[in-house]
Design goal:
Layout (H helix, E strand, L loop, with lengths): L6 H4 L3 H25 L4 H23 L4 H4 L2 H22 L1 H27 L2 H22 L13 H16 L4 H22 L9
Subcellular location: Cell membrane
Main location: membrane
Family: Belongs to the UPF0126 family.
Amino acid sequence: MAERFPTRICGVTLDLIALFDLFGVFVFAISGALAAVRKDMDIFGVTMIALFPAVGGGTLRDIILDVPVFWVVDTTPVWVTFAAAVISFFLSPLLESRLRVLIWADAFGLALFAVLGAGKALDATGSVLIAVMMGVATGVVGGMIRDVVCNDLPLVLRREIYATAAFAGAGTFCLLRGLNVQEDISLWVSVAGAFAVRAAGILLGLSLPRPPR
């Protein structure tokens, strides 16, 4: 999950970004909660697992960047995660039946988090390399922790296009900012690009090549 962009980056779109940001937290939290439900965990376990994808990537990013951790500054994402965990615990059959919808919502959350994370890192360090790395970490690390704790093969280590989409979004944002494209335009173009890459993977079954045998 990514911290809200500063006002100077999003201007009049700040409220919309904050809303989408919390939507991404909610969807990522549901992905963690459903993984815990499938492992027959109790409600405490479901809540803890929900936190990993919702705030794990952003937490790691902020620790590495040595800035205040976003959910300590503003606890709203934590409360949103708790709500998602409770909903998932009691309504898991309904959510599982809408799994296709959640996959697309997750794709949007991944794209948004990767770009917001890259933007925060770029502001903090001025390094394109660090910004791209932190953008990818923001989008995928929480899900990796979720999968490891649930004893599943992390999604980013499978052949499915996932982390590549985060890389595309973060890289595009840094490129556009380097070309002095307006910041809110850079944001939305990059989110759209990352979402498109992920969508191609979902619709066409694309994957990265494996080494020759």
